[in-house]
Amino acid sequence: MELAVIILFVLSIAVVSALWGRFEKRRAADPKPEAGTSSGAPGPAAARPARPARPRPAPAGTGTSPQAAKDAAALLSADQHRQIYAALGQGQPVKALKLYAMFTGAGIRASGAAITNMAAHPQPYVRPIPDPESPVAPDAAKPAAATPDAAKPAAGAESEAVREEEISKWAQQLRPEDFLKP
After folding, report:
1. Closest by CA position to 78, among listed 121, 123, 130, 139
2. What is the C-alpha separation between 99 and 61, in angstroms, rounded?
3. Which of 164, 97, 157, 96 is nearest to 124 (CA)?
4. Residues in contact with 81: Cβ distance below 8 Å, sequence separation at least 6, in sequence order
5. Lowest pLDDT segment from 19-28, 61-70, 169-178
6. Residue 96: CB partners within 8 Å, gap ≥ 6?
7. Which pLDDT tens digit goes with each residue over 24-83?
């Protein structure tokens, strides 16, 4: 007997739900009378003005992609790349977004999309390859002068290369889960 009561209760809820759905469909399909027409007593539609339609948000993008992350990372120097991934690694995506916008001059939306792509698909720093068709600057064509200062930049360049390798190894080990907050 108790089972029959439960079944009847569930069936009554289903019937009321179906009837209410049909009622709403019919009400939505019927054209609404204008406020100035003579339809008898003023209804609720005549008592209040119609609400303006809310603007619909633009459809969401297709999400993140490794190619978009590569394109975003290609705009950064080694130090900028390091700073942005350090901010992402510390769980500070807003700081990373501000840094990216400052470094590239991109807007907030473009920076947000770039940071989202870079966080979802971590990219190692890749040194830009010079274009062989571009004209060579006159200073670059001259051989380095044999001065005592000429040896110092070579040592700095070597330590910079070591740092870049360390960052690249670190970035290759990153996973998208590393950027998700618990």
Report:
1. 123
2. 23
3. 164
4. 73, 125, 167
5. 169-178
6. 84, 85, 87, 88, 115, 118, 119
7. 888 887 766 555 555 545 555 555 666 655 544 444 454 778 888 888 989 999 999 999
